[in-house]
Amino acid sequence: MRTEQRFFTSPLVFLQFVAVAIFLAGTGAGAAERTLIDEGRVSLIVPDGWEKTELNAADVLAGYATQDNRSSVFFRAMSPGFGGGMQDILDATIANYEATFIVKDVAKAKTGDVAGPERKWPGIFTTVEASVAKGDETFEMKFYLLVFETGSRLYLMQASTTLPVREARERQVYELIRSLVAKE
Questions:
Q1: Domain-embedded: residue 26
Q2: Which of 24, 63, 114, 165 falls 20 to 30 Å from 174 in CA-CA distance?
């Protein structure tokens, strides 16, 4: 009997090959495109249905909003030491909200990490619920505040959505936050 050369030496090797092929197919053409901000120092995946916006554009690196403008996200950057550390910036942002809006709830801040190509960056996160007056109208809003540091920059990410929060909108905000990748 003649020995034939096989590409897959065992069924286990074949199954591993299939698993890798499925994984790579999922990360290729069907994967969402990353959006670069601050000259590529930060990237994220903007949810479907969100578009670039010029609202609050004066001191914003980038902003995106849903078509109905009920959910949005904005990024600001500052040099370390500009307004203190991450906690100082978060506290100052909340104090600004308290001076501008009727703040109803501030969640306890949580620490975590923002992914990077070579390391993780420290971050601090909280949510704020407030009544926001715009002209004669008042909107109940939930803000998602993330401050993170990359060594050369401090970033403030502010996302928001109207209350009551629709589950799909909140899921988009959290997916956007989890998609962040930052480099120094």
A1: no
A2: 24
Of 123, 68, 140, 129, the C-alpha closest to 103 is: 129
**Alpha helices in 72-122, H assignment, sequence order:** 86-100
Residue whose structure tokens are 């942002």: 93
Q: Which residue has the tokens 């040099």?
A: 79
- Domain containing residue 123: CATH number: 3.40.1000.10
Question: What is the domain range of residue 161?
Answer: 33-182
Mean pLDDT of 144-169: 95
Say what the alpha-carbon torsion angle 118, 122, 128, 133 is, to the nearest 10 degrees: -70
Q: What's the domain count of the chain?
A: 1
Q: What percent of the chain has pLDDT over 90?
A: 71
pLDDT of residue 174: 96
Instruction: For residues 142 and 159, give the distance between their C-alpha atoms in angstroms, rounded to a whole number.
Output: 8
Q: For the segment 37-57, what is each residue's pLDDT rounded down to a tens digit? A: 999 999 999 999 999 987 766
| 38 within 8 A of 59, measured Cβ to Cβ | no
8 Å CB contact between 169 and 161: yes
In DSSP notation, 44-72 reads E-PPTTEEE--TTGGG-SEEEEETTSSEE
Other CB atoms within 10 Å distance of the CB of residue 28: 8
Partners of 148 in the beta sheet? 123, 155
